[in-house]
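Think of the structure tokens as a kind of shorthand, similar to the way a musician reads notation: each symbol stands for something richer, in this case the local conformation of the backbone. In the example below we present two proteins back to back. Begin with the first one, reading the sequence and then the tokens, and try to describe in your own words what changes along the chain.
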Amino acid sequence: MYWRGHVGIALLAYAPVAAAVRVAGEPGLAVLGAAVAVAFATVPDLDHRLPVAHRGPTHTVGFVVATGAVVAVAGGLVFPASGGTDLLASGGFALPAWTPAFAGGVATLSLCSHVAADVITPMGIRPFRPLSTWHVTFDLTPAANPRANRLFLGLGVAALALSVALTP
């Protein structure tokens, strides 16, 4: 997949989470989660700029879990647990104390969606490297297929829009 497909699949995965967070009365957190989902949707493809193989270590379960944990810890530093963090001094919305864990979870979900999206391409992935050389591919569509990438982006945006529209 290319960036459009990855962002769309991340939004598609995040849409039910956004709905649940909105129902829980945390619309600000739903917005933050959408930003995190989009921001981390293409992180595994940073391997194009690193001296490692494409779909190598950045496309593994280990990378997904470690990165999600780092995001949660970093979130704890940015949003310290104080019973809510006021984002805007002029009376903006407050985020709950569990914001760091939420951000780490959404980052993990977004990274998982990236790895899952690459499974549908002929190149596939090796999700448990270096522990296993097991290769997974469903070989449904080439990563460069513009129709598939636009379709996934459209589905993701529509799913997130529906989840927001259908929740209070």
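Once you have a description of the first chain, move to the second and do the same.
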Amino acid sequence: MGKKLKPVELGRKVSNFTLEGSGGGSISLSDYIGKKVIIFFYPKDMTTACTQEACDFRDASEKLGAHNTVIIGISTDDVARHERFIAKYDLPYVLLADPEHQVCEQFGVWQMKKLYGRDYMGIVRSTFLINEKGVLVEEWRNIKVKGHVDTVLAAIEAASKPKSKSKAKAETK
């Protein structure tokens, strides 16, 4: 990748990025123009909380798909590890490898963390919703896994509801 990506900002178009994905080949954000995109960043495949989050998105994938929404998971793990994670938990969506953490930095999720008194850089668990035109419309940062996917689904369902007819009539009078 090489170049530094423009940081994301709510209400603004997200700069395109390309990463190696599960299933082989490169995946770009621009591949999904015309669909809503959920990008969830998580620290590591096969760990307890990350597995729960991935499985929660798996379990909601059909409902999300009904709202023209695709799911993308991103961590710094390599593609081979992603493939094992997908196979073990039957994940129906793509996982992208960001070993140089450039996209993690673009989204502001590569941060200093502390565990057992040790400071280190890592991914802060976060989720982003990008609309059909590539604009960042929602973000959930430093989330707790329990109930998170339900919150994301509710936001997508609310955004997918047609505008009220009474409001449209009032505007024409």
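Compare your description with these statements about the second chain. The chain has five helices and nine strands.
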